[in-house]
Prior knowledge:
The protein has 170 residues and is mainly alpha-helical.
Amino acid sequence: IPVVIASVVVGPLSGAIVGGIFGITSFLQCFGIGGYSMFGAILLSLNPFFTFIMCIPTRILAGLIPGFIAKALSNVGPKKVLSSMVSALSGALLNTLFFVSAFALLFGGQWQGIVSEMETAVGASFGISSLLNLLIFIVGTNGIIEAIVTTVVGGAISVGLFSAMKQRFK
């Protein structure tokens, strides 16, 4: 949400910077720095370079592109509501698309080992029998929720910030 807000309200470069910061934070969590990501740690153990690619460049792009979409739609709709909501949605969808695509391309051949590691770590079976099922699981559990929340919250905050900035700089 902060990445989308920075991109929509301040611009694509700001979105890319904030996205990069979130990506670095995510990558550091693979090492247990600033929190812990079990999934990230598993990917890191398989290939640190691919994990870096999944964490940082994808997040930079997911911050950059919504800003360009917001600029393209800046005069559409009253009080920038439509452009903010569409741009926020695009940020969430692009984040999921980039993550799932990078995962499939970089780690697709190792999905069985990843699922097995996760099941061992949490002591539960996910019942995932194919790479496609794993990707559907990721998109279904995270992607849809992220899209809804980011569109509503990120879009609303962006509209509010535009309104506040307009009042402040009159």
